[in-house]
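Appendix B, example 12.
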Amino acid sequence: MTSNASADWRFAPATVFAHVRARLTLAPAGNGHDTRPVPHVPGRLRPAAVLIGLAAYPEEVRLILTQRTAGLRDHSGQIAFPGGKIEARDKDPAAAALREAQEEIGLDPRRVEPLGYLEPYATRTGFYIVPVVAKVAAPLALKINPEEVDEAFEVPFAFLMNAANHALHHKEIEGKMRHFHAMPYGARNIWGVTADILRNLYERLYD
């Protein structure tokens, strides 16, 4: 599946990564004076990190996503970024995201270059997620952990950064009206937390 945006010069690999480096930083997430590995987390939310892995191919950039297994406790069966809880052994959110990506999909951290943090995202299920945007050397050589992930796949970054492909939905959940984005791509429906974080990335980079 292709997008008209794929021919846009803004999405040439060199331009994408130069733009990301100009707009994002690896300074500690949250308060710029907070140098603790785990950012200050409001309330009882659990700190987590996800990897927005941008695979650098010669002609285009593609985003790495996963299909979570149906048996997981949180966000089962959904399309998600590789990632998970920040643990005490992680020196920072970027280290947590790389560790989780290696555990879930076998992504070698030596092939990953973290570029910057996106604003943290609080979920309804109790997580405080720090997104880590990173450049990933392509082609990928992955090994899926079937206990956590059914499949890993890639989507053109140009498609996801095209606002025409962002649909805003409204749905009543537990008596409250919720608003969330969806980005259907072929037979896959990228929605909820994943799509909202991608929308935040779009607004930071291209809006």
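The longest helix spans residues 192-205. Residues 4-33+44-163 form a domain with the Nucleoside Triphosphate Pyrophosphohydrolase fold (CATH 3.90.79.10).
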